[in-house]
User: Fold this.
Amino acid sequence: MTRELETRELTIRFGGHVAVDRVSSRFRPGELTAIVGPNGAGKTTYFNLISGQLAATAGEVLLDGRDLTRLSAPARTRAGIGRAFQLTNLFPGLTVVENVRLAVQSAAGVHYDMLRPWMRHGELTARAEAVLERVALAGRRHALASALSHGDQRKLEVALMIALEPAIFMFDEPTAGMSVDEVPVVLALIEQLKQDRSKIILLVEHKMDVVRTLADRIVVLHNGRLVADGEPAEVMASPVVQEAYLGTGARAGPA
Assistant:
């Protein structure tokens, strides 16, 4: 089945301020879309509306034609939307493998049972170990999530998303706060996810070198409105983007 994520006239107001203003867009499998714009453009707010962290004032979020607009964030996760945040969203007191096992367990619909502990769920443990191998964290499986470097925590967050088997991967500034050495590892993981042409990948990013490396398509927000949408070379060359983003906005911090 061909998956499709769509926002229709998606809008949110905070008092008199319209943070996202009637944004309509469709996202297709096999395509990584970078959502860019200057500081305060509404990029992360738009992400929050899609994933359910914020409730829309108006408009709709649809997945395969199903209206998700009134669903909670956990319900949207169950529907197939996976989200990684600017700040890592892990269980810091659990080990690396325990974090991933919980995600595998959730995807499999298996509830914890004191009479049938984890060692009897061999197939789920094996799946968790395979995910850790994929993100190069197998060697840290018994480390607490809180003890990992920032880069490894971002890798673990990607592992949790992979384990949940979503239709949609959403990355909010995945390289934020990383050292120069850590950035290529996370970019390589996202490149690896792109090889699965059945997945939709959305990326909020303000580093244009990252966008150029990963994006198949660029959507530009400015003052909460969609002002450009297309192939990277075409969008980057457009006057509206040059003015709105690639000037002083390109050197601004994340939005």
